[in-house]
Amino acid sequence: MLDTATNRPPLPPEIARRRTFAIISHPDAGKTTLTEKFLLYGGAIQMAGQVRAKGEARRTRSDFMKMEQDRGISVSASAMSFDFGPYRFNLVDTPGHSDFSEDTYRTLTAVDAAIMVIDGAKGVESQTQKLFEVCRMRDLPILTFCNKMDREARDTFEIIDEIQEMLAIHVTPASWPIGMGRDFLGCYDMLNNRLELMDRADRNKVAESIRIEGLDDPKLADHVPPHLLEKLREEVEMARELLPAIDPDEVAAGMMTPIWFGSAINSFGVKELMDGIAKYGPEPQPQSAEPRQIAPDEKNVTGFVFKVQANMDAKHRDRVAFLRMASGHFKRGMKLTHVRTKKPMAISSPVMFLASDRELAEEAWAGDIIGIPNHGQLRIGDTLTEGEALRVTGIPSFAPELLQTVRAGDPMKAKHLEKALMQFAEEGAAKVFKPGIGSGFIVGVVGPLQFEVLASRIELEYGLPVRFEASQFTSARWVTGPKAAMDKFVNANKQHIAHDHDGDVVFLTRLQWDIDRIERDYPDLTLTATKEMH
Ligand code: GDP
Q1: What is the pLDDT of residues 464-481, one digit of tens each?
Q2: SUPFAM superfamilies annotated for this entry (predicted)?
């Protein structure tokens, strides 16, 4: 029997019950609070304090650095798994600062949906918009949560219009708020014809939910005062006329987002949002790979690394590679093939971030995220299989937008610095280019805060004070092409040539004019601003 929505046979139940998603938002919109409430409903209450610690650590720049140094916290929050009714939710964390947008992009390659949290008073903010664009590049389904309705919020139609216009996506109301600010009572659940009433006295209580037969149900008047009821009826009637009804196919294609209104801090609207994730946040999706796509229900296990975190424990220099399972049923101890090096790897102590703490993952299914401790063999973009030479595609490395020269405070420690830099390059924390002429390294990042985090990590983890200095270059492009053309190009442009940590050729310049010139003079060569990680 085929699934009517996907036209594929239904997935095995263990896979079909998985929902793997990330939350995108502008700082302060309520991502941490919402995560906490997810865990509360997922029965992982112990976790709430940890998430809070992280949220508050993000308040100031120096605290943010401290958080980065406190690898333990950010790691256990990198991927969290919890059950919600019959579902298994895997929530993958995205970095909170726009300077780490490349990390965010790669994280979003590991999820099947994104929750967009916006502040009801502020609407679509700059970081929301940036992250949304990243989701759009992958056509990810997006569910929207409009938070802080217990405070003075904008008019509901205005919020919906703003999302539709700024993000060019259809918006369909899954719930409709009743009153706002001090008068906020709760929501009318437009998908299930229920009245959800917020309890202001107990912030962790699930809202009272009353079944009603549409907006003419006399029961409504028992709970909603006349002036709010009249407004609700009017607005919902208008919404039904002006806004599209929910279309699951459009949601799955990332062309329509359902919006729920609520207040994360009051636990209000959270359960309805979770029901929405269960219903619309799709099951594990096929993964693009070469030479063929990977389907989640294939018997053989495959997975790919989307994130690496190094030096979580300064004493051991261990690293954890985060693997998104793309297919099959993984069991602890399995021997998988590391496709890039063609070497077997026994995965004997994988970790999963269940409820309160790291745990050994005895098993994992397509859709799950596991952490694999290793000594540097696993890199971002790597694929693990049961032997087949598959390579997951679509995990890019972006050309950095800011370049600086880095030098060790102590020139005798140059080799040491090289080792540290290579490690951060492999972790994906920065681009490291070794110029063909001269000494030192050029480090490239997307946002300036990354330089600060790097400098502090190199000092903390390698005991090596470093200096970042302005570089003469501002842009980098990877260059590929036939050997003869490459040799000619490299010889004629020595001042501009560097190699990245994989040994690939990079052209550095400060002028777009230079890039245009190379493209014109060397028609056989390709200059790119992204490179697939493998
Ligand atoms: P993040 O930066 O997106 O992770 O945001 P947080 O979850 O840390 O929340 C930012 C601030 O907004 C904190 O002070 C929260 O207590 C507050 N907050 C979160 N949700 C709500 C809400 O529903 N109502 C109100 N009034 N405040 C909220």
Answers
A1: 999 899 898 989 999 999
A2: EF-G C-terminal domain-like, P-loop containing nucleoside triphosphate hydrolases, Translation proteins
What residue owns the CA closest to ligand 1's atom 24? 148
29 lines ligand 1 (CB under 6 A): yes
User: Residue 183 annotated as binding?
Assistant: no
CATH number of the domain encompassing residue 136: 3.40.50.300
Residues 375, 471, single domain; the answer is no
Percentage above 70 pLDDT, the chain: 87
Q: Is there an atom of ligand 1 within 6 Å of 265 CB?
A: yes
Same domain, 262 and 294: no
The closest alpha carbon to 332, from 377, 372, 297, 300, belongs to 372
* Beta strands across the sheet bearing 175-178: 175-178, 186-189, 194-197, 208-211
pTM for the whole structure = 0.82
Residue 232 forms part of a structural domain = no
The count of C-alpha atoms lying within 13 angstroms of the C-alpha of 267, restricted to the half-sphere facing its C-beta, is 19
Ligand 1 atom with the smallest distance to the CA of 268 is 23
In a domain, 195, yes or no: no
Q: For atom 25 of ligand 1, which residue has the closest CA?
A: 148
150 lines ligand 1 (CB under 6 A): yes
Q: What is the ipTM of this complex?
A: 0.99
Q: How far apart are CA 164 and CA 170, in angstroms?
A: 6
Range of the domain at 253: 14-181+245-280
Q: pLDDT tens-digit profile of 32-69?
A: 899 888 888 876 544 334 444 444 433 334 444 444 44
